Amino acid sequence: MARIELTATAWTALGFIAVRPRSGYEIKQACAETVDAFWGVSYAQLYPQLKRLQEDGLITGQESPGGRRQVIWQATESGRRALDEWLVQPPAAPQLRDEALLKLLFVQSLSPAHALPLIRAKRREFEAWIAQFTPEETEGAPGPADLLHSYALTMARAGLAWCDTAEESLSGAPENP
Prior knowledge:
The chain has 177 residues and is mostly helical.
């Protein structure tokens, strides 16, 4: 079987669907509960990818009975095989896209005081991660979701330490004219 090229958002959707059949809304909710700290998925990204997965024969959809019209997606055998093959491939290098950091690069044309709100916004983001991913008491060996939460917490704590250093550094910087 030729390796299938999909976006990370499509792989995310296929992974959640392979775990159990889900609607687009349920996929988005699963993303919010698990992967949003490192891989945000919007509805605008998700629905075109579901269509692509269906066109490629990796998922099938069936309208759910009831009042709300929604499609419940389910992985096909081809979809499960493609997911299995993707899972054992080396991951692509991570790409960080962070508008606050981009702005921080260019705010130097203003004054250090203009950088502080960007640092504070990052601090709030990291604090929100900590609130979201603080582990609950569970019995048994940690599972993949526990490991992802641990990763998010470690990154958030490192981010808070960076905020402390950045704020301290900026507080002593001279103002630009």
